[in-house]
Amino acid sequence: MARPNFIVIGVNKAGTSTLYRHLRAHPEIGASDRKELRYFTPLRWGEPIESMASYEANYIGIEDLPVRIDVSPSYLHGGDVLASAIEAELPDARIGVILREPSARCVSYFRFQVLTGSVAPDASFSDYLDRCASLSQSELASKAEHPYWGLWGGCYAHFLEPWLERFGDDLGVFFFDDLHRDSARFAGDVVRWLGLDPAPVLGAGNYVENRSFSPRSPALNQAARRINHTFESLWRRHPELKAKLRHAYHRLNEQDDGFVITGRDQALMEEYFAPWNQRLGEMLFDSRPELALPSWLVKDWTTTT
User: Which of 30, 151, 185, 225 has CB atoms 3.0–4.6 Å from 132's, for a disulfide?
Assistant: First the structure.
């Protein structure tokens, strides 16, 4: 039985759903009906994984396609535990990761956790940041605190290093900045990196999947999420139907909550992420000098090193 050979490991709230929709439209790329299989994720929390046969079952019928994908953005944060497991079980796999400016991702992650009910609907962003910053490393290692990974989850250099060491040139680093500008062109770049013809995805148009928002009715939102999960395989086969229903739902239940980032919160995030961004920039500048870094990673040292 076939296993995936292209694994998108992250990050959450960086456009992985949009990339998944583009990739599954390519005739030479096979994808399971469910986007996030999360087969290896339990290892992150010290839990056992299911049999490999259960994982392989997601790829029945697409064994002959040259590329088979698993888009599970929770993998990156599993660090070397997940990297070593994937290296052992999927020795021919290539790895992709999309990185997003960590402050913007933190805001999106917070809003998503509120949207899903993992963080109280009346929680302020300031209180959320304080809670994130107060957690110790041992507390962050608990699955129960995962909703509060808004800050720690943006320290990409810490998590990416073991993946780079294990997969080397078989790990592709991409940036949300490029996806946000032109999702079809971005997907084309990923497809080209995989050694396939990008033409089938370049003409698909641009769209955004899984955007965080503030609902008028949390109860209606929870019902919509259950429906979305129940019929996920249907939506994947008929994305145009999902797009129409999603548009109608957002018109019905989306509201402008006047969300504003205070100067204090912006300063807190910038101070927290600054050393990690520098470390990441240096890491990528040294290991991938040909990579065009986004503005949030381009610092004075890149021109003087």
Answer: 151
Residue 240 is assigned to a structural domain of this protein: no
Query: Tens digit of pLDDT for each residue in 154-201?
Result: 999 999 999 999 999 999 999 999 999 999 999 999 999 999 999 999
Token pair in block for residue 224: 């919509």
SS3 state of residue 10: strand
pTM for the whole structure: 0.86
How far apart CA 17 and CA 23 sit, in angstroms, is 10
Helix extents (H) in the chain: 16-24, 52-56, 79-89, 102-116, 125-134, 137-140, 156-167, 176-181, 183-193, 199-202, 218-230, 232-237, 239-253, 263-287, 301-304
The residue count for the chain: 305
Examine residue 198 and state whether it is found in any structural domain, yes or no: yes
Q: How many folded domains does the chain comprise?
A: 1
Flag whether 75 is in a domain.
yes
What is the three-class DSSP state of 167? helix
